[in-house]
């Protein structure tokens, strides 16, 4: 199974064994359309890298297929079962993995206004992959799909009817493959049927979102119509009074585009500290940098607001799970969140948290809620859903 995750200027790919999920090779082509593109292909523990201009997504896919030919495994020999594509925005149209047809491509194109930075790259990746593997079924797995069953009360913004009906202004949510996979693993680790488990998943990477999952179904999530809402992220602010945009237009003369760019690329950790990378923020915090100290507090405060809100939405909580780059690796952040929840019977197991490696229970046996670190596996989840559809 080949998984393709085509972003605006990069293509990530991974070849997975359909039976075990084991990664057989993976790669990344970056800086598409810019100068000095970089192509990396990792197989058997070795990474092969080249620096060269990559004009477009088709060229990126050609580099990937050539890397398979040169460094293995040869795609002609592996008998490709399916290509699974990560597609960011499926609007309200797609609630399930979908076999890619010309109609599906047309619908994803129609959804470009909802995700102008993401869907075009996804479409370019699909076109290039169809050309490279015309005989292999291709499946779109949407970031938004897992949240499409959210209750209307959670998906609805209280805005004029015309905005909602004509312009599709509603909450869609993202990171769905990660939230689906991680919430399922949490139920497995608890040893209880998925249908009975209420969990909150904190997917904390460069982009970050929380999801409330009840019995395997997303019932609320922190990202909304776009991936800007909710938690504090690397370069995005998360929740913000919508009045701020108009205020900046009036007092600073900023255009809509300028406000949007600042909210997508210059806010979050970057806006608070000058660095979008959580590791660097933690290093500066350890040195006593007041901006980094405050940024950490802001991140934790926002997380607590969502944990509290989602616990109430779920009417109780069985598992609280940390995943993605920051969630899987940052001991202090997990400790700060869990310690503040002690009054609700959530009891941090500090040594387990400090030593967490892979799937780890980080609360004590008498904790009312089980806290976990569960590494996400978006590629595996995309491949699994795509393969399930074609078989
Ligand atoms: P993406 O959303 O790009 O997939 P990732 O899930 O890879 O992001 O997460 C990237 C973030 O994880 C970065 O902010 C990075 O600093 C952070 N991160 C990675 N490793 C660590 C670590 N050991 N400690 C703290 N943060 C980390």
UniProtKB/TrEMBL annotation:
Function of the molecule? Catalyzes the formation of acetyl phosphate from acetate and ATP. Can also catalyze the reverse reaction.
One Pfam family named in its UniProt record: Acetate_kinase
What do the Gene Ontology cellular component annotations say?
cytoplasm
CDD domains per the UniProt record, alphabetical: ASKHA_NBD_AcK_PK (cd24010)
Subcellular locations according to the entry: Cytoplasm
Q: Which UniProt keywords apply?
A: ATP-binding, Cytoplasm, Kinase, Magnesium, Metal-binding, Nucleotide-binding, Transferase
**What protein name does the entry list?**
Acetate kinase
Residues of the active site are: 143 (proton donor/acceptor)
Family, similarity comment: Belongs to the acetokinase family.
Its UniProt entry gives the catalysed reaction(s) as: acetate + ATP = acetyl phosphate + ADP
Statement: the UniProt record of this protein carries the keyword Kinase: yes
Q: Which cofactor does it need?
A: Mg(2+); Mn(2+)
Residues that hold substrate according to the record: 86
Its Enzyme Commission number(s) read: 2.7.2.1
Q: How does it assemble?
A: Homodimer.
> Gene encoding this polypeptide?
ackA
Residues that, per the record, bind Mg(2+):
5, 378
PANTHER family listed in its UniProt record: ACETATE KINASE (PTHR21060), ACETATE KINASE-RELATED (PTHR21060:SF15)
Q: Out of the domains of life, which is the source?
A: Bacteria
